[in-house]
Amino acid sequence: MLNIPMPTSPASQKSKLAQLLGLIAWLALCFGAAALGAIASVHAGTFYAQLTQPSWAPPAWLFGPVWSLLYAMMAIAAWRVWCVAGLAARRGLILFVVQLAVNTLWSWLFFRFHLGSIAFVEVILLWSLILATLIQFWRVQRLAAALLIPYLIWVTFAARLNFAMWQLNPVMLS
Prior knowledge:
By secondary structure, the protein is an all-alpha fold. 76% of the residues lie in helices and 0% in strands. The longest helix is centred in the last third of the chain and has 27 residues, at 142-168. The radius of gyration is 17 Å and the shape is elongated.
């Protein structure tokens, strides 16, 4: 069983049960957002295979496991910050929820509507929101911020891939 240490802080007044329920809620929120993105990505594998890809593009099968791990890490990060609470935590959690919504939108723009240019602009916005969230989380709970670093790195890679795919497929990703 996964042993995730409960965050502790003098400001933290949440019981163990409240913390556990909070973790479940953050996991549900993150994987709910993933599910909404997955609805747009039902045919993503087929569409991805039809696109001209750069030589460094990963295989389609890699995206599911990577995103699953990232969503779990994101949920744990938000949960850790939520457990600490306080004004800075609220600001960071609001940013977190906004970036999660923007994350979900990307799948719709790219895979459902095939809008490569708009998806690229949107992923740059997403990257900025992730960085802002990471900075806010750092001020509250450093481990939570560290849990977002792989997400920021992956979205950096995804932005580069989005741009390359858009440039290589101007007709399919208009």
